[in-house]
Protein 1
Amino acid sequence: MKKFLLGVLMMFSSLFLLGTVNAAETVTGKIVIHFQKWNGDYSDVGINTWSFPQGDPLSTQQGPTALGDKTKTDSFGVYWESGDITTTGEGSLGFQVVGFDNVGESNESANFDKKKYTNHQIDAGIIKDGKTVHVYMFQGSNNRTDNEKDPNGVVNYIVADPDKQGIMVVYYDSTGNYEEKLGVHSWGWAEGGNASRWNEPLKLFTDAGKSVAGVRVKAGVLYYADPVGTPGAIVYYGDGDNSKKTNNLEPMNKDNAAYVETPTAKGQLDIVYTVNAGNGNVSNENVWLNDAQKWSEKAFKFELVAFKAGVDGKDATGTYAANPTTVMVSTNQELTNIYVAAKTDEERETADATIKSWFTVKEITSAEGATTETYGDAINIKNVDYAKGTTNTTLKDFVLTLGSPLDNSKRYKVFFDDKGEGEAAKKHELELDLDREKPVITFLGTIAGKVEAERIIVVPWNKKFDQNLFPTYLISDDRDGDLKSYAYVPKGDFSTLNTNEEGDYVIMLQVEDSWGNVTQEKFTFRVTKDTK
């Protein structure tokens, strides 16, 4: 009997000790859930929650709570705050951001399944004792593990470390063709946030949202070191300078697009938004700090890029007519190169015809400023050139060859339509920038800067004309660049010089650009016996 009782006591003692060793630590903390909707319209936004402690502000909420005091706004979007949550870190908290078609009516009549902007099971293990943890969610994110999971994989929420300050880098490529090695070259951040070396990107990004077209949005977090120095990062895919998607992102540099004048408090993140604007990008015109609206306009609103003049007629960009039969088109988003993706000659022929069908050019027949704009018939497009003979999987630049020339005394518009459906469709129109500016002739030497009547060059009488006396000049054009070699003296009244007869001979210099804009400038050869 003693042996039996001793055995029982030992068994209970073992169970007690084992339970003590395996007991999970209980913590009490808060979470703040931030949500960003791509179009910035939160009027139909509410939440659907489960598994929050009874009595918590976020417990079993169902309805358009964006209309109530539970929902607050910030530069990221909207957010909701929990109360104190006590947990062992096991399990999850259910949280959906839901759009309601019947905002303002009773919860009982709300359709909770029609629109789910996010769909999450938040790991209870993120809660820290005595801390407030900030959770960031983007539209389209879903990490549910039940039958509502995304069949293409998790699109997760972002959790900020409550004890650190930092930035979240958001990157979006409208084609969804993210390079395998995409990441950042980074320096000066806290441990774990620095790339090992150039061309070995830190794999910072995770899937954090989805556009209405189903394209995933990437995001990742970098934390400041203590003390904060001068950290920086470059979004790229590790194939030299040409793989740069941004230039340096330097939050401590006041002259940088990512400059953070006053960093957010510990546990929160400043957001550096970026979009794919092509490779080798060093302008940082595709970078916005804490400005979700400007970023989303560029990231999700398809547009034709407006014309931007280059320097001395070189490196012009955007959408414009380079000459009467050539139209350059540039898009603000990269498009899938369906031609390169085609496998057979027949598929490539179909793909080429499809890409050509995206474009239409018409004359604007209504007066400028008219309430209703009217157009003439579509102008024949003979050919559309793009990166056809390459391995490029995306497109954003096109060259249209027209069957009939444009007239720069008229106005024209180019239309783009990929024939897509719904919000995923890409459609835009833009008036073409035509060249209506004449070339500029600038005289040098002795007649530089003088008006026509004072442009006098003395020529010795009765001697063979010295070609070196012909004035030197420069000719520049806003589109064609250097046109010096195209200048000539046209036949007529201003083309004759007789060195055997004293007098003034007015000479005309003429040049014409590719649009037919003509510039004429005159000067005078004065033939005289007195050359002193």
Protein 2
Amino acid sequence: MATKTIVERLEALKRHPLLAFVSFIAVLALVAPFVYGLPPLYRATATVIVEGQVPEAFVQSAVNGEVDSRLQAIKQEALSRARLTELIERFNLYPALRAKVPNEVVLDRLQRDIKVDIRSADQGGGRPTTIAFAITYVGRDPVTAANVANTLASFYVAQNDRIRSRQATRATEAIRAQLLDTEKRMNAAESRMKAFVSQHLGSLPQQTDLNLAALTRINTQLQGTTDEQSKLMERRQALQTQIAELDTKAATESTSLSEPESKLLAAKREYAALKGQYYDSYPDVRNKKAEIDRLQKEVDQLGPKTGAAGLQNQRAMLTTALNDTDSRLDRLSKDTRALRDQMSSYEGRVESAPSRAPEYAALANDYSAIRDVYDGLLKKYDEARLAESLETTSRGQEFRILDAALPPPYSAGPNRMRLLALAFFGALVAALLAAIARDQFDTSFHSMDELRAFTRVPVLVSIPLIMTAGDTRRRRVRATAVLAVSGAALLLLAAGTFYLARGSEMVSRMLLQLG
């Protein structure tokens, strides 16, 4: 039944061939001039490659790894109002559109006509890396399209160099400021630690072992001094005893003593007794020594006796030895006091060291932490200076025009052959629909089956339409008139659509995007 219906629909073309032909021609007459009248659009593309001549293994650039962000920043600047206005005025873009619409609409059109296609590759680690990008411009003139694409590519290259150089300089200055600030902090921490060391020199925790070693040495020296003092004290006691014995012997052997000699002998006994108990600096010892000297002068004025001469010489030798022993004892006493003072000082240092350990450790840790930060910043500063040098000499990561845009020999759109093919099939469909629609409004019977289906009266005979020469002539005249009028109308419509299409750049761009 479906096949019969389709066949019946196609038979409408036979019954209304003129209408179908006019409809077919009308669609083609409207669409074909419009397609041929659409302005051609040319697409020009410039390819820019991203290359880095210095591997990051040799220097960690301050601006590496920011290609995508830099591309976005450059794109925003390239599509800025001032930059687009400069392009429009330089290449006289969209002259007809500029005369009709505000400048904002023209700028929006130019932004849509510029495309940046980023091409990435996976360099490992799952993160794509931009290796190149293409800048495309679509315009009505092929030479202008190529010039605009090349101008934008050159702008990307130049702007990338400026951005990288500016970023490298800013990074170096920022790190340098941090380095100077850290250096001030480090110097201040070092000054605090030096002041603490200078104030508590000798009693620092790390000097405890030295202080203990010094205490051991001083204690050994003190022990030796004490032993020597004991020996000298014993010798002095023996000398004093010998002197006293000589004085007693002199007194026994002497037949008579003068008053000064008696007093001198008594004074010497008392002096010997005092020396056994006190040092020479004791007041009574000094006074007694002065008295002996005075009495000795009086005795010397009287002159020595002949019997006591030998005893006097022996006593003088013992007295000299005693005086020498006293001098040595005085020196050892001073040395002992000095050693005890040193020992007391070192003991104080050892005792105070634990209390200063936390403060010293805090100062040392603070200085060490700041020093580590300073060393890290110094390394970064050296790398930043090297990176800045590379950027200045264009040896860092840079953009280079790989393929400059050339004037395209063929238009990118619209695709007229495809549009004409679609128009041809559309005309066929329109012709069929017109014939079917005309057939729907025709109330006459076209076949015996339709008549039998309409009435129960039996059909006896079918008489075909008898066409006379006049009928044939009238039909031809009418068809000629219809074709003439239709042709004239279609010519006017075709001319109008062609003229309309010449200014329909928007339609060309829309068809180019759809294609």
Protein 3
Amino acid sequence: MTRRLRDPLFLLCLVAALLAIVVQSGELGTADTMHRLQTAHSWWTDEPAVLPNEYPEFGIHGRGGKLYDWYGVGQPLLMLPVEIIGTYVEDLPIFDSYRDTDPTVRNIFVVYTVNTFLSIVTAIVCFRFLGELGFTVNQSAAGVLALLFCTTHLHYTQNMMENNYIFLLTLAGFRYQYQWLRTSSQRALLIGSAAFGLNLLTRLTTGLDLIAGDIFLLLVSWFEPIPSRSLQSLSSGVPQLRSSGNFGSAALRGRILWQRFLTYAKTAAPIYLVFIALDRWYQWYRFGSIFSTYVRQFTIERKMLDPTLPAKYPWETPFHVGFFGALFTLEKSIFLFDPLLLLTIIVIALAWKRFRPDVRAYLIATVFLLFAYICFYARYTVWSGDFAWGDRYVSTAAQFVAFISVPLLLRYRAQLGAAVWITGMALVAISAAIQLASLAFWLPLEIYQMDTLGHPTFVVWLRFKNIVAFAFGKMHAWGLTNDSMTYDPWDYVHITCWNFIPFLLRRVGVAPVWVVRIVLALWSAAVSALIAALLQLRHVLRMSAEVRTSHSLS
């Protein structure tokens, strides 16, 4: 155990686990995730995928007139094993007096298990990937911490939408396929392709993530010089190239790239086709068609219920509204919710020529991914992601561009100068503060406030004002009381307490006082353990840096 406490990766996993434990409220976070959990529950019980009382607000009529959800199958599959266990845990006699309360035992079990798992695995994959991009242990660890604490990844660790699952699968796709490019490991290519394929089951638009991964591989292959061993091996079978000695010719380079493409296609394409076939089967199972999408089914159902909807629904938003809205509006700007994007822009502008080819390839691919998502959802009827902290449709792509700014800042600190370093540290601090603030209350709070405050509203600043107001017992001054806003009592309870499990249990008032006190004590211990793990990680990284410095001097 003592040795593990000196291992940066183990400490990062410990930090990721404790962070996920500390930030949970016990709730799933959004209605979308609740519906997906119900879908998973329907697969092994007699309950329907969509409860009858939820229609017409939610649900689509499918085969046999049954109601189905309109989501992909990915997140329900992720939750299914834990949901089964959680249901049996909830049925234990010890919880008889707490059955069907809020938050439910099943939901508590699901969010703690799934979110902690995702957080740990993401930390591992991110750390390994940064190392393969040439970053030192300290720089890689800083990148993981930047992702976990300083991007919207933290918010979605508390609110279990699909975002962090999609992020992990895309990151795994990038990492393992890049490992294949470096080592020719067939196993790595299989894992990376399966990650991208599994993403397609979660949301079909993750085809953009797959394309970005392909762009990354292509650019790495194009930017970097081909190893002489590969040139020699290939040219041995091409007499005219061997006799000319022109091992670096464009023809030979193109031949090597073509062979890489064939190897990739033979392995990855069948995997992608399998997952596409599974997605199409699920579409046929629900709606009797393999060629339409759930968006198409949703559109048909909505227009039947409301014939006054625009002809282009749900793509009626003017492109410029959604495109510039995601970039610059006070309510949804990616730069306000993920300020590390600004740091990435600064570092790119000042140090681009110093970047390794693979880092350049990564940045081009992820910037493409970010703008592809912005453009795709720009015309969508709710381009902003509706009830979400920031623009949930593009926040995952924004995290890819944002978190790498910290490792880059550390790597090129000397060349960038003191002014950029100070600016970078300020942006890191601001980003961490914004992400921590995003956890304080349930996410619909400011959305409800906008009903009375109007638009535009500086949501991030409003969140800080709400924290101050609540801390000093002045929430009425900021329009947080039930008589000034229109929502149901369940929502009112959830937006008027700190969004962490001991405070929510106390606010709801169903759990016995002694249970609330025990949960509060355990939560406080987890917070203390998280701080201790961070301090230990800081100590280990400092020791590692000192060892490297002494070796370089000797």
Protein 4
Amino acid sequence: MGAITAVYHALCPAADAAGLARAIAVEQTVEVPESLIDARIDMEIVGKVAAVDPLPDGRFALRIEYNPQLVNGLPELLNLAYGNVSMMEKVRLAELELPPEVLARFRGPNYGVEGIRELLGVHGRPLLATVLKPRGSADDRFRAIAEEFALAGGDIVKDDNNLIDESFATFQRRVALCHEAVARANEQTGRQCLYLANISVPLDRLERYVEGALRLGVKGVLIPPLLMGLDVVRDLADRHGLLVMGHPAFTGTFFHDRRHGIEPGVLMGTIYRLAGVDISIFVNHGGRFDYSPAECASIAAAARAPLGRIRPALPAPAGGMSFERLEDMTREYGADTVLVVGGALLGRTGGVGKATEAYLGRLRELFPERLVAPRRDGAPSRPLPPGVGEVVHHLPFRADFTWEGRAPAGYKKPGELPYRDVVRHELLGEAGEETAFSLRYFEIAAGGFSSEEKHVHTHAIIAVRGRGILTVDGKRFDLKPNDIAYVPPLTVHQLRNEGGEPFGFYCIVDRERDRPRAP
């Protein structure tokens, strides 16, 4: 079984280098004085110092090998490689090598280089992306940018990272407007430009926003992994099959003191890929931030380097991306790159369409473009439920306990907590209404039951049809029409129908809520 190998570049006196390497190996694994480390712990748990080598700049390369059994997922890996050592002065994580058995625990990008090219149907040249900005512009302005860019043949249009909406309803309206504009353009051109919505919201709203974008047909998102949490991004990508474009916000804290932090290629190449990032945006050198050509090259190389079975990602330089620099940039980064051109494209004389055509024309002069039919079966995009994205002021009731404008839906996703014969109707709160709650109607067929679960948010239950049984922390309550029940936070509960006719009830919950979990 291979080891997890971390190489740290440390600035210290030569006489102290070996001792510092041992101190790091101990600190990252057991965090106790040497006197408390017995032979077994030293052999099985404590990191092994494999090499201490001088570097030309006066630092030392400390190569430490860790037991891969100390890692189950991304948080443990990050903690093992750079947890406590991040608080040591003048120590930088320079390399991270992972054995196959560790890499096998990560899915990585859902698409990667080839998957994105298949979605777009574009091969042979760098991809061109632009940005919906600035914040404060009208939604119609964003729609026009997206549509003009797509009509001119652009590949990817994304929200700006600071494009934040006042509410879920305004997010959904804006995203629907931009996505539909790109879809219309795609129908005209026969190509497939991708629109990526910015998902940068508090954690208790994150799932709602992601699912809202997917319901509209959006295939991918822009997300800042260091702001939202690397393992949060990994979880979203894994569960939803998202195409993820990673934004570099907050990464500068690791880079600008070159004696400390994490090498850009390790963080925005290797670690971002482990978190499921398909496209890694980074600040191009020569722009408004102080990144060197070597640092930018290291990110691009790590994004595309072999990493077990994990797909290579597309590096995406941004900032300072003028038309005049295209030849130099493409020579540096090569064909498998996304060029993110924001202000230089949006502000170019002639408008967005003409500017896009100019950039693409130059790329085609530099690279042999090959176009094929784009793949249309990309990341899961679910049909828009009736009424979602459109506030309905009146939902007429039918005698069979259904409502005009709200079709019944499945109770839960396949593979979640066990249940039987339950149907859900989303009535208010999920279609863009400005409410703090969601009103749903559930119906359980004879012999059916809801999942046994618990969660932080509370339930208010109003029985309206038939009879049912509610159990809350082992206590049993019989419910008949117009009975009202309350489920407190983190109490295990379940609803069952032990009768011979349908049992129906309204359920009121917080609109922004946590996901149910097993007892």
